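Appendix B. Extra example for self-study. Work through it before the problem class; the solution is given directly after the inputs so you can check yourself.
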Amino acid sequence: MGASGPDGSLQSMLMNRSLSDPALQAASAQAPDYPILPDVNVLKVGGQSLMDRGRAAIYPIVEELAEAKRTHQMLIGTGAGTRARHAYALAMDLGLPTGVLTDVGSAVSGQNAQMLGYLMARHGVPVVGDAGLGVVALKVAESGAAIFAGMPPYDMWQHVPAEGVIPPYRTDAGCFLVAEVYGARQMIYVKDEDGLYTANPKTDESATLIPEITVDELIERDLADLVIERPVLELMRNARHIKSVQVINGLRPGLITRALAGEHVGTIITAA
Amino acid sequence: MTPDPSFVTKDVASVFARQTLLDRDLVRQPERPVVRLLPWLNVVTLGGRSIIDRGSETIKPIIDVLRAVMPMHRLLILTGPGVRARHVLGVGLDLGLPTGVLAAMMSTEAEQNGRMIAALLAEDGVSYLSHTTVAHQLAVHLAASRAAVSNGFPPYGVYEFPPADGKIPPHRTDSGAFLLADAYGAAKTIYVKDVEGVYTRDPALEGGDPPELLARVSVAELAERGIETLPIDPIVLELMPTAKRVKEIQIISGLDPGNITKALAGEHVGTIIHA
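Solution. Structure tokens for the complete assembly:
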């Protein structure tokens, strides 16, 4: 690659302009997109919604994932859950900054990854230390699936929320970004509800299921509560590979398999 | 709506238990002041293209100044990547690699610049610290030494956000330094560049009114002015309003390294941008 190209080319702009220059950013949009792991499905197994329920919820999911990996390559991220919530509350009470809370949340999602890893070990599914490529491709190719902790490694560099100190980018965002960077086949959030509702179905009986919705509609509706971290919506808008995600109920046997096959069995949120 | 009532969650009691952490009313707790973890910390960021790429003529005097101020001020020196990051960005874009991979590649160059700066200060007890060490053991390193050097890029790597337009990683040195400084509650956040500060218009552009240096300017005012190119990544201006402890940043010219001494002593040189 030459140090520069003709004036106005991407290469010459890269050398001469600020990386924040809108013309340079627009020119970079013309670059091709090479999907790194296009056959891999990224799934997120919820922390509070599933892991914290223990074996009643997790054993059937382990069996379903073990069967599914025969036909589908999977990267399985884990959420954090109730211990993270306790630690967030404690850390907040102590006046600690968002960066410290991020670290604490990471540890909990790491525990869940390890526990899920022990349960899936007999099926040859490894836990990968971090989702930076490393051995991920080999592990997925060899065993059909690998498990990772869903929290993004933002640590002391986590964005600070407008209100309070709870890390805004947690495991939903981390798993989404893994799917996006690898150009994965799809992103499936496995939770304990049938999908996205008009309100939190656990606390509001009038809540109704929304089978399909766009990010724009979702932002416009400005729901007070949401089944997925809000910043994921913004990430989806800007994503180049992952244009839709599906939220499904992992407590209903068979839905993971059907979602992997491309069926619409929960709520599909699309970017456009 | 749960299919089987036998699913019992094993909760740890807390104010956030059994909620999504996404309900605006539930997460709105009485706002507690966030403590400054390292209230004596000064975060000094050396620009990659603006300072380090200029070579020894620019860097050596800055090293001398940093060495001289260390007895008075505890420093975390962060470095940007410069022109090599532009090159690897060009190669990576051409190969069709995603933003997250580009971010990881660029970050390596910022790290290499940091290692070179640390080497020049090694005899004064200064070492290069990895991201992990900076996040978890900065306190002990700055108790053992008056200064440490690290990578200005945040450790986002493959978890970098896809930008709104194009593929260039949005979180780079300036925002990495800012987020870290705020998390630690740093006393001062200083950006060392090759311009005196922020001007009313880009001094590098020809024609128009002569540019004037803005001594003190708010984020809102800067946004209103719509200056074409700023000496700092605009994303920092988006991060500043929500920051908990770092409410202002200072941009100074390292071409006159005495500015670093003055800024650390609390003198108003260059431009101060406040939230």
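Self-check: Chain B has nine helices and nine strands. If your reasoning did not lead you there, revisit section 3.
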